[in-house]
Each structure stands twice: as C-alpha cells, then as structure tokens.
Amino acid sequence: MTIKEGWRGRFFEDFQEGDVYPHPLGRTITTTDNIWFTLLTQNTAPIHFDHHYSAQTEFGKPLVDSTLTLALVTGQSVTDISQNVFANLGWDEVTLPNPLFEGDTLYSQSEVLSKRESKSRSNIGIVTVRTTGFKQDGTVVITFKRTLMVYKKGHEPKIARLQPKMPEPIVPPEAG
C-alpha cells in the first residue's frame, strides 16, 4: 500500500503575483446560518433575523449579515491562501457592492497582488491577495484585500501524521 500525502496548502514560495485561485467550495446560506451568526455576534439589526421586518424593506427579505459574508469568503480561501498562515495582518478595502440573501450560494476566488520576504522573520513571507465573493449567478457580493504572513516550506509547524492501529481480527469461539 502506498500512502499519498494530501493537499498541504501553499507556502510562501508557491505564490506568484497575478495568480488567481478559484476556491473549490461553494456554500448555500440558510436562514439558520444568518440568524445564528447575527445573534451570536450581538448584531441587533432586525433586517438579518426578523422576516416580518425585512419584508417591509426594499429588499423584501432578510439580508445576510455582512460579517458572515466576510467570514465565509475568508474561510473558503483558506485551502488556497492561508492553510500555512503564521498570522493575518489585516483586511482592507472591504466592499459589499450587492446584497446576499438567504438561499444564495456563495463562491469565491483570490488573486495574488504582491509577495515579499519578511524583514523580521527569515522563515516567513508576506502575501497580499484580493478576494472576491460572488453568488450563483456571478453577481459580486464582496471584495477585499487581505495581507498575511505565510510560512516558507520546511518552516511550518508539523502536523501529527499518526497511523491508525489496526485492530486484531475477532476470532469467534469454536462451537462446542
């Protein structure tokens, strides 16, 4: 049996300016997602959790909490952008050009804008990306720049790669 290592994400050396990474997973936003996230973060704007109130707005239905949109799109990008992150340095230029609604499916992609060596840590590089989140019809609902520190190859913390202990086969007692 040959063990094949799974995707470990990109390291600093793997990023090139201009590269675009379409992130592999989409996520349909449910009413429960929107209400729980809104209330968990103590956002009291009823447009996110009160359907009767929201029906009276120009949208006619609840808007997805914008910080949920930011969190989901950031999460979607992890497999391609920050699987090997040392630290996030910031989100800049966050824009929300169109609304996202319950029932919409959110997709995203990121473009590498710049990369440079860290001046203070030889095992780290700094990468800036522009991430775009869009719904199922291609309408952009969020864009932002994100700057992060990413480990160089061979300098990341090691993840335990344990091998399972296979149980001994159960031998039934002999019929007597």
Automatic annotation (TrEMBL):
**Which domain of life does this protein belong to?**
Bacteria
GO molecular function list: lyase activity
| A Pfam family hit | MC_hydratase
- What CDD domains does the annotation carry? FkbR2
SUPFAM superfamilies reported in the protein's UniProt record: Thioesterase/thiol ester dehydrase-isomerase
Question: Which PANTHER family does the protein's record reference?
Answer: BETA-METHYLMALYL-COA DEHYDRATASE (PTHR43664:SF1), MONOAMINE OXIDASE-RELATED (PTHR43664)
Q: Could you tell me what this protein is called?
A: Molybdenum cofactor biosynthesis protein MoeC
Q: Give the species.
A: Geomonas silvestris
